Amino acid sequence: MRTTTATSALLSFAVIGAEALINGTINGPVVPGTTGKLGNASIVTDNPVGVTFTAFLPDSPNTGIRGYVAGTSNANGTGVNFNINIYGLPDPSLGPFMYHIHDQPVPSDGNCTKTLAHLDPTQRGESPPCDPTTPEECQIGDLAGKHGNITTSPFQTAYLELYASTNSALGAFFGNRSIVVHTSNATRLTCANFTLTGGNATGGSGSGSGSSPTSTGKPPAFTGGAVAKSLSFGAVVAGIAAFLL
Questions:
Q1: Residue-wise pLDDT tens digits, 100-157
Q2: Distance CA 41, CA 36 (A)
Q3: 3-class SS letters over 90-109
């Protein structure tokens, strides 16, 4: 009887452990994977020097948000220096506000939804959220995730983004894409296309000619961590039960 009770207790513990293993809810080697399907983003080292693309937020009657996001290739060709100046944001309760480079340009009707998802050539997806301590694992277009959300109005910041490109031959090229400003619940407030405002871009003007944006479509859904989901909960429990009994 005592042996049966002990075996039942062990089996119950095994069931709980197996469920945690399958759902990825235990500490240890089972961690959410954030690397894109095509690997991590690479630092861009061959940007054409002196090239600037700027997205000027439109004078829209639907919002008071104004400003610009400008990206200039670094003097040594490695990365892009971004300069952000955004003001006229709505009630702070809707924030913190986010801003991202989106995969597609804003169409002529100004519909921000048609810019699709974030620029994401590594097919990383939006979940789990970007960890700024490992920017190579983030979506290239997730500027707010890597460098901080908009928490003040006016909002001004500048930083070096190592993974964006002014070289139109690369998937990380942002010159013919768009910037979108969101509320904290991802509602799109305003958007604008990047256009060439300085220098000579390789292979295109940044206004739609040359290289076309590499469409990533809807970000891939997050499917969990390192444990293969093909293992069924029942199979794991059955195996443990067979071992204990």
A1: 999 999 999 999 999 999 999 999 999 999 999 999 999 999 999 999 999 999 999 9
A2: 8
A3: CCHHHCCEEEEEECCCCCCC
